[in-house]
Each structure stands twice: as C-alpha cells, then as structure tokens.
Amino acid sequence: MAIVGSGGGAFAAAIAARRRSLRVVMIEHATIGGTCVNVGCIPSKALLADAESRHHAGDARFTGIRASAGPVDFGALIAAKDEIVDGLRQRRYRDIAADYGVDVLDGHARFIDGLTLDIDGRRIDAAHYLIATGAEAHVPDDVPGLADSGYLTSTTAMAVDDLPESMIVIGGGYVAMEQAQLFSQLGTRVTILVRSSLARREEPELAHGIREAFTDQGIAVFEGVQPTVVRRDGDITVVAGDREFRAAQLLVATGRAPRTADLGLQAVGVETGGRGEVVVGDDLSTTNPRVWAAGDVTGHPQFVYVAARHSRSSSTTRSAGPRDASTMTPCRGSRSQARRWRRPGSPKRRRSNAAFAASHACSGSSTSRGRSSAVTPVGSSSSSPSMTAAGFLGVHLLADGAGDAILAGVYAIEGAVTVAQLASSWNPYLTIGEAIWLAAQSFTRDPGTLSCCAT
C-alpha cells in the first residue's frame, strides 16, 4: 500500500496494514506528522494552556486572593511549544514508522496514467493507495488587498517571533475563536470580525454564552461584518462598508479546505467535490477501485480521531466498517459538542437547558458561567413516559473543563442511555460533569429547585 500523507490517518492505516504484513510506503512533501502534531492540536493546546494560566493569574475571581499577570515572553512560549512538537514528531511518528518497518519518502506525490505515483521523478506502483493529505487554511480570494497584506493563518500565527499588541481575527468558527482567545489571554488586544454570527453552528444559548465570555475577556466581537478591502501601511486596516478596523496583525481563520491540488486525481478517475474533497463511499472507497481516502481530505469532520478511525476502518485495512460519526466530539478549548439531529430526515427533537449556575461545582470554583443541554427525539410533553425512555441525540456543554467532561455525553449517546437512566445515575460531586446529569434532570424538573445533594 502507498499512502500519500503522514498525519494521524496515514499512520493509523500504515500500522493496520503492517499488522496484515503488507508492505507500506508513505510519501510526505512537507513535515512528517501532519496537522495535529505540527500545526494543530498539539501546538495550539500547548499555547492555550499557557494563555489560560496567565488569564487565571489576573482573574480576580476569589475573594481574599490578589494576583496579577505580568508581560509574556512570547519567544520562550514558542520555543517551548516547538520543543514539545519536535519531541512528539520524533517519538510518535519517525520512531513509530521505523518500528513498524514503514518506508517514508520525502517528495511531492502525484498520480499519473496507469495508476502509478510519481514522486519527483521516482515511480511507485502499489496494489492499493490511500489519500490522507489532510486540509489547509482556506483564505477568501474575493477581498481586494488581502493577498498582499501579510496576513497570518492559524498555522503561521503560532510561529511569529513577537506577541502582537493588537490583532484582527476574521472568522467565527472554532479555529477563529480558539486563536482569538489564545492571543487575548496572552495580552493582545483582539477584535474578531464575523460574516454571520459567532459560533453559528452551535446551539443559540451556547453561542450567546461564548459571546458573553469573549466580551467579558475584552475581545471585541463584530457580527454581520463583510470585509471589502484590506490595506497595510505599517498596521493593517480592514474596511467593511463604512467601518474601518485597525490592528498590528491580521489573522484569517475562515475555515480549512481539503488538500487535493496537484495530486493528479483526475488522471486516475478519482472524483472530487465542490470544495476539492475526495468523494468517498461508506467504505471510504473512491471512484477508482484501488484508491481510498481518509480524514480531512474527504470533507468529513476535521478531527484527527476521525481520520484515524477512517483509516482503521477503510477497506484497505480489511477492518470493521466506518464508525457512525454522530458522536464525533470536537474539543474547542472550553467547548465540546456531540450532535447528529441536523441530518435530513432526522426526528423531531426536544431539548433541555440547564444554566451552569445550577451546578454545585460552580460554588467551589467561584464561577457561574456556562450551560449544558441535551437533545432527545421526542414530542412536546415533558412528563411523557416516552420522553424519559428516549435516548440522546446530542449533548452540549459550555464550561471550563468541558473538554474533559463531555466524554460522559459521548458514552451516553453511544451506549443508548435513556434520559431516565442518566437522570437517576450516580453523579460525583463537585464536578463539571454534573452539568450533564443536570441536563437530563431538566427534562422533568427545574434543577434550581433541588438542594445540594438531591437526586
């Protein structure tokens, strides 16, 4: 098997194939490890942890404790982040490839007639091929001046030498929000410009909570803003209608597009979609019977564990069929969500809502910010037996620590736990996960009327 790409999906496929004693070659045109270890999950979460530490130092949340957040040695943060990335790239990618006997070639791979890969003049023939090239930052091409402005992306922003005094972020999705909060908590004055609305794919109450949190932290949020011109004259000016926004740096975080340019897919009959994604079937096969694709390049949810599951489940590795993506859970700094009900033909739904203030954990942490909710496929009566016997379509959690606690919601969905079962289950106090239990309670009673340990 020949694998184009070297990220999480590529390695999951390579390991599965080697366990079947297949010979495997992997081709990478840039840096081994793909998005997650190099420019995504690992470096962003490392810097987010740094930023959160500084933010808490200056947060006068606890009565009787005074603390302050001093200036940031940004160069030292970037150096520490790079050390983490370099170490993981060696231990979890180069060393793993060597341990499993996977050949890794440097170069640009391109399919040519006869279903052969050309790698900078070298030819590779394989029985099976897997496209696992991931995605890259998408930058709008319809804003005059943007291309020449020296803008940053989520990738390059984590490699700048100095912390900018001010920054404009264009975008309202999870990457834009994560980067905006990261730089704000490190001390940058951040303005975020959103074409539609911030966190528009989230439940309205959660999106509202995120906007409130951003405002409280000093991030200026402007929604319904369409940039029309970008100018650089030392600083950067973004013009949007009759308004102008000015900052030292501009970060463009308007989504990520599948990386399929110049792979020669058309030459071997591999169909791509409107955003360049490789079109795959339920078994992740393409329109060429010897070519499969996995991960971000397919246009499926862009999370590394989706890519890994894809690769282990594809027909190339003769494993189980692809896993249902309904509980694919993004961990977005302080937000997590499992969702499935927006699919065509999905059942009618009923949603509970519980303010985090009802959670007893907020008493110990001196914060009441946050919200939890759950969604079930039932009718309108909150007292209906069918309601409490229903399983969950989705679980939402907005809170510090949500990324850890949301796993309980994933298991509730995958295990077909009913509302009644979750509402009557054991619930350790005082934990953030209690908010999920309260969301189940909210279908039949108001959690605000319960005493501390009432169940």
CATH architecture of the largest domain: 3-Layer(bba) Sandwich
Computed CA radius of gyration, to the nearest angstrom: 24 Å
Portion of residues in beta strands equals 15-25%
CATH class of the largest domain: Alpha Beta
The residue ranges in which pLDDT falls below 50 over 5 or more consecutive positions are: 318-344, 379-383
Distance between the termini: 55 Å
The count of helical stretches stands at 13
CATH superfamily of the largest domain: FAD/NAD(P)-binding domain
Shape: globular
Strand order of the largest sheet: 3-2-1-7-17
Alpha-beta classification: alpha/beta
Describe the protein.
The protein has 455 residues and is an alpha/beta fold. It has three domains: 2-137 and 257-323, FAD/NAD(P)-binding domain, CATH 3.50.50.60; 156-254, FAD/NAD(P)-binding domain; 331-446, FAD/NAD-linked reductase, C-terminal dimerisation domain (Enolase-like, domain 1, 2-Layer Sandwich). Helix content is 29%, strand content 20%. The chain has helices at 8-19, 34-38, 41-57, 74-100, 174-186, 204-216, 304-313, 361-365, 385-388, 402-405, 407-414, 419-423, 434-441, and strands spanning 2-4, 25-28, 103-106, 109-112, 116-119, 122-124, 129-131, 135-137, 166-170, 189-194, 220-223, 229-233, 235-240, 243-247, 249-252, 256-258, 291-293, 331-332, 335-338, 350-355, 371-376, 394-398. The chain has a five-stranded parallel β-sheet with strand order 3-2-1-7-17, with helices on one face. It has a five-stranded antiparallel β-sheet with strand order 18-19-22-21-20, sandwiched between helices. Strands 11-10-9-15 form a four-stranded parallel β-sheet, with helices on one face. Strand 5 and strand 6 (122-124) form a beta hairpin. Helix 1 packs parallel to helix 7, helix 3 packs antiparallel against helix 4 (74-100) and helix 3 (41-57) packs across helix 5. The model is unreliable at 318-344 and 379-383 (pLDDT under 50).
